[in-house]
From TrEMBL:
Protein name: carnitine O-palmitoyltransferase
Similarity comment: Belongs to the carnitine/choline acetyltransferase family.
Choline/carnitine acyltransferase domain location: 176-759
GO BP annotation list: carnitine metabolic process; fatty acid beta-oxidation; long-chain fatty acid transport
Annotated ranges, domain Carnitine O-palmitoyltransferase N-terminal: 1-47
Catalytic residue list: H474 (proton acceptor)
Pfam families in the record: Carn_acyltransf, CPT_N
Record-linked InterPro entries: Carn_acyl_trans (IPR000542), CAT-like_dom_sf (IPR023213), Cho/carn_acyl_trans (IPR039551), Cho/carn_acyl_trans_2 (IPR042231), CPT_N (IPR032476)
Organism: Macrostomum lignano
Keywords of this entry: Acyltransferase, Fatty acid metabolism, Lipid metabolism, Membrane, Mitochondrion, Transferase, Transmembrane, Transmembrane helix, Transport
Membrane topology: Multi-pass membrane protein
Ranges that cross the membrane: 61-83, 103-122
SUPFAM superfamilies referenced in this protein's UniProt entry, alphabetically: CoA-dependent acyltransferases (SSF52777)
Enzyme Commission code: 2.3.1.21
């Protein structure tokens, strides 16, 4: 009722003395402030667009150019090469400017043209430089071509990410190129050689030949190239739409992923304080994003990456639909939604024209923790709607949440900057009991099926003992974006000793003004609605009970030892995974997925590296045979590592296999063309799905002086019914974290057993050197 009262700006009464108006001054003041804030944001947006459009120039440089041109002309030096005299009659005729002012106007117009031409030329040159990727294949001590040397000099002179805004290079980034169909088919067939029998391989080659010879490939490729000329990225919109938004399966476990705390440090045990400090840091990061003050990520501080995915990091929600979900993104929000003990609250972080301080947020969160009121009927399990079947959730949202209190409260969650879950349970890491870390991760991946709002971009989870983590929805962006947020706000801010907390564990500072009370959200959930919630909770419970999740903290060695072997750390780990799977599966290889980014291109997301290769299989067989010499094994492992690195670079530079095949398949469906080759190629199971979690993206993480500051990374649910999902983070010189998931219901897999095989394989690889 407090919100309803504040919404009444004025009232009037009709009396015998006329109409009397009564204004609520506080309400009018809030309306005025909201309007001013909205216009400030619009002005900031216009200023950022202008800055990005003319980057690297500044508005002042235009005035300087005009002034130089005018002064030079006044002193008899015509820098325009005679164009001022040619332009003067035009200025006099059409602008009505009389001499001698016509000369000044002509100089200003010509200066403006020169200035704009210089900016456009710069952007074209930068685009050409960023489209060159030969440097990736010539790094790490190999002979450097003259092209790459020239490119390196020009990039260092012309590209500076240090003073650029977040989107300064967006317009200059190249479009993702459409690979040649023959090259993609050839790469695909080579990748399947170690996995198919001779007869299966012959059938696959025949299907590929028919796909090319009958003109199907040429026709589909034509439409794909047409799209690539028109759209910023020929893959990303279809990838988001068909892989994520059209999926009707539950997104909990199947799509969402999680991130975990820096487990070796503990800045505070006070739950409300940790929640407040991390929330405040995240909101300040959002503020920087909105102002485009965050520098674009770059490779070697030189080559910028696409920043498109940051736009929907906050105030974004996946909305369920009958056939297809949609993503709702807002440009602004003033509150976060908080879940605790089965109840939902609305907590303002922007109030009375200012951003609240961490200590003021702590005060609000503590009042929620102190509130012992019971949840309303059905409220405690409400989030199970977001965990279950998407069609059922879409119908329930339409039937039960389209009006009244339910609509208002649902809006408060969906329009929040993010969701905060204040858990009643604790979570921790104990080197003597690794099952605690497994439970920690499982709580973040799925919780109890109804204590995470799985539709939100991310739910920040704060446990009763101050440990934290997050659960993230996947459709809007990829994990590195959340990883950067985590690094910016937690790893390099929240856990730094003496920065955010007093000695007693509470947030530093004192309230600077009136702190609003949390608003308890009200629900009117009918018996029919509660039945739907219960059915969705059963679906979620069955799904989460089938997850076998195990975390491995490998501290025997890390990146440092891998580098002494003169191998890429990622290639080292991927070969260890191939060896571990071969041993775990009783001598079999499987189709292996490793995620690689394509953010060197505009609106790039991911590409697949097919890590199971002829070279890796040859090495694994030789390793297991026991007959190969150490020299031979080293030769084979280096050949396999080189092949993996080449494939990784191919994927990053737009020469991957899977996204091209995927988009060809989408075009075939639009054209109603049946392609046996595409059908077969795209319906193979990834029994080993892997991903490396990046760290050190911000350049602020100092692991030499603070080795315990590294996050334990994050993970995801099993992709295949009889396979493994493996996420890993090579955390500094001496530690690797592995997050291994599989199905409890599958007799062939066991996450703990596979973790042991990974550790054994890593040690065997190290022993070779």
């Amino acid at each position: 009722m407090a919100e309803a009262h504040q919404a009444v700006v004025f009232a009037f009464n009709i009396t015998d003395q006329g109409i009397q108006f009564e204004f609520d001054k506080d309400a009018l003041h809030q309306v005025w402030r909201s309007g001013v804030r909205a216009y400030k944001k619009r002005y900031a947006g216009f200023k950022n667009r202008l800055r990005n459009g003319i980057y690297p120039a500044k508005p002042g440089s235009l005035l300087t150019t005009m002034l130089v041109m005018i002064l030079a002309t006044m002193f008899g030096n015509d820098l325009s090469l005679g164009y001022v005299k040619l332009l003067n009659p035009v200025v006099v005729k059409y602008l009505g400017v009389v001499p001698p002012h016509d000369t000044y106007v002509s100089c200003a117009l010509i200066a403006c043209g020169i200035w704009l031409s210089a900016i456009l030329l710069y952007k074209q040159l930068i685009g050409c430089l960023l489209a060159y990727h030969g440097w990736m294949y010539e790094a790490h001590g190999r002979s450097i071509s003259w092209r790459t040397k020239v490119w390196s000099v020009l990039v260092k002179l012309l590209v500076s990410c240090k003073r650029a805004g977040l989107y300064s290079f967006q317009g200059a980034l190249p479009r993702l190129p459409v690979p040649n169909v023959d090259d993609t088919i050839r790469r695909y067939l080579v990748s399947m050689e170690p996995l198919l029998s001779d007869d299966q391989m012959a059938e696959m080659r025949q299907l590929a030949d028919e796909f090319k010879s009958k003109g199907t490939a040429k026709k589909l490729q034509f439409y794909l190239r047409l799209k690539s000329w028109w759209a910023p990225n020929y893959v990303s919109d279809w990838w988001e739409e068909f892989v994520y938004l059209y999926s009707r399966d539950p997104i909990m476990v199947n799509s969402n992923y999680y991130g975990i705390d820096a487990i070796f440090v503990r800045p505070t045990r006070v739950q409300a304080a940790r929640a407040a400090n991390v929330s405040w840091s995240m909101l300040q990061y959002w503020r920087k994003l909105s102002r485009e003050e965050v520098k674009p990520l770059s490779i070697n501080d030189t080559v910028p990456l696409c920043s498109w995915q940051y736009e929907r990091l906050f105030a974004t929600t996946r909305i369920p639909g009958d056939e297809r979900d949609r993503i709702m993104h807002l440009n602004d929000a003033k509150h976060i939604a908080v879940y605790h003990a089965g109840r939902y609250f609305k907590v303002y972080f922007y109030y009375a024209g200012r951003w609240l301080e961490p200590c003021e947020l702590e005060q609000q969160f503590q009042s929620i923790l102190n509130d012992k009121s019971a949840p309303s009927a059905g409220e405690a399990d409400l989030a199970a709607l977001t965990a279950g079947e998407r069609r059922i959730w879409a119908r329930a949202r339409r039937d039960f949440f389209s009006r009244g209190a339910n609509r208002t409260s649902l809006d408060a969650i969906e329009r929040a900057a993010f969701v905060l879950a204040l858990d009643e349970e604790s979570a921790d890491y104990d080197p003597e009991d690794d099952s605690q870390l497994d439970r920690f991760a499982k709580s973040l991946l799925h919780g109890n099926g109804c204590n995470r709002w799985f539709d939100k971009t991310f739910t920040l989870v704060v446990f009763a003992n101050g440990r934290i983590g997050f659960n993230a929805e996947h459709s809007w962006a990829d994990a590195p974006v959340l990883s950067q947020l985590w690094e910016e706000t937690v790893i390099t801010s929240d856990i730094v000793p003496g920065v955010g907390y007093n000695s007693d564990g509470h947030c530093k500072g004192s309230p600077k003004g009136t702190v609003p009370n949390p608003i308890r959200l009200q629900w009117d959930l009918s018996a029919s609605c509660r039945d739907v919630i219960s059915s969705q909770l059963r679906v979620a419970t069955n799904l989460l009970n089938d997850v076998d999740l195990h975390l491995v903290v490998h501290t025997q060695f890390g990146k440092g030892a891998m580098k002494t072997c003169r191998m890429s750390p990622d290639a080292f780990v991927q070969l260890a995974l191939q060896l571990a799977y071969f041993r775990d599966s009783g001598g079999q290889f499987c189709l292996t997925y490793e995620a690689s980014m394509t953010r060197l291109f505009r609106e790039g997301r991911t590409e697949t590296v097919r890590s199971c290769t002829n070279q890796s299989c040859e090495f694994v067989r030789a390793m297991e045979s026991g007959n190969a010499s150490k020299a031979e094994l080293i030769r084979l492992v280096r050949a396999a590592a080189d092949k993996h690195q080449t494939m990784y670079r191919d994927a990053m530079t737009g020469k991957g296999v899977d996204r091209h095949l995927f988009t060809l398949y989408v075009v075939s469906k639009y054209c109603k063309i049946q392609s046996p080759f595409l059908e077969k190629a795209l319906h193979c199971q990834w029994k080993l799905s892997t991903s490396q979690t990046p760290h050190g993206q911000t350049g602020k993480l100092d692991l030499r002086n603070s080795p315990d500051s590294i996050s334990a990374g994050g993970g995801f649910g099993p992709v295949s019914e009889d396979g493994y999902g493996v996420s890993y983070i090579i955390a500094g010189e001496d530690t690797i974290f592995f997050h291994i998931s599989s199905r409890v219901s599958c007799d062939l897999t066991n996450s703990r057993r596979f973790g042991d095989q990974i550790c054994r394989a890593l040690q065997d690889l190290k022993n070779l050197f």
